[in-house]
Structure formats: C-alpha cells, structure tokens
Amino acid sequence: MKHVNLEKLDKIYPNAYFEFYAGCNEPGYDDKPMIIADWNHVPNHVFDKIESLGYACEWSDEWTNCSECGRGIRTIGDSYEWTPAYQLGDGEILCLDCIDPSDCYESLENNPNRAVTTEIAHKYPPEDYGYTLVTDDYVNDFHPGQNDDPKTILKLAREKSPEDRFLFVITFKAQFDMGFALYRKN
Ligand SMILES: [Zn+2]
Prior knowledge:
Elements: H1 6-12, E1 19-21, E2 34-37, H2 44-52, E3 56-59, E4 63-65, E5 72-74, E6 86-88, E7 93-95, H3 101-108, H4 118-123, E8 132-141, H5 150-160, E9 165-173, E10 177-185
Parallel strand pairs: 2-3
Antiparallel strand pairs: 1-2, 4-5, 6-7, 8-10, 9-10
C-alpha cells in the first residue's frame, strides 16, 4: 500500500486533524488501515485519492481507536440497529477482540442502566461465562403496555434470588424499540 504523508497533509490542511490507525475492528467493516479526519476541511479529490490508495477514510467525530491494539472503533451509530462493539474502561476503550468478557460482564452485573450489547454478546455468549438465561423476551418501545423496565425487573429478580448476580443483554435494536434479556449467575 502506498504511504500517505500525514505530516505533509497536516501542513496543507491543519484543521483536518489527520490520524492514522493501522487497522479497523468494527463489525461490518474491513480490517484495513484507516485515515481519520474532519473531512470538511479536505477537498474531495484528496479524500478520493487517499481512498483509492486502499485506506478507509472515516470521520474523527465518529471513530476512535482501541487502547490495546490501536485499531479503529466506531463510537457513533450509523444505523438504528447499531450497538457499541467496545468496552469503556478506566480511561481506556477496548475493541471487540481486546475485551476481557469476564471482566466486562462482571462490571455490568446488577446494573439496570447498563447492558451487554448485541455485538459483544454475539461474540462472547454469556452462557460461556457462567450465566444462565432467565428471560429473553423483554421489549422496550413507545407503545403503552410494551415497556419492560429494567429497574423493576432487577428489583423483583433480586428479591427472589438475593444471592445471584444479574446481567442485562440487548437482543435487538430497531428504530422504535429494543429487546433485551436477563441472565443470572450464582
Ligand atoms: Zn483492540
């Protein structure tokens, strides 16, 4: 792949704030070198040229990179179905491959405001990490009567099994609703 001289580009387009990531680890995207920038400050022909060299050109306000492996991660959704494929830690962000699923799941236990996202649960099935499915058909949307509330669900579950730890997992996400499941570990 032909090298792109970012230092030179920085001098010509100082407001673009170019960044180079050696790869990409976002579901649905090819794992190839990325050049991230605010492309509003770069002429189209330069963008096209960089893309034609084989780089993925993406927007700096929608992407960041993994603290561990350096590959690109999308942080803003590009569809209604999108859910994060990363874990936010203490000052770090980990891509799907660099996550420690046991740590990740433990950090989300007994928290009605947090859930394992579909991408993470797909790659690391909670069953493989000691969790047992309790219910997988909760739905939350704008229709009255179809509004399962994680706070109420967790409260009841913990009253019933105070020794257990519970984990919410998103099962689907769409424009107007989302589904989620409850898992239990003892
Ligand atoms: Zn990574």
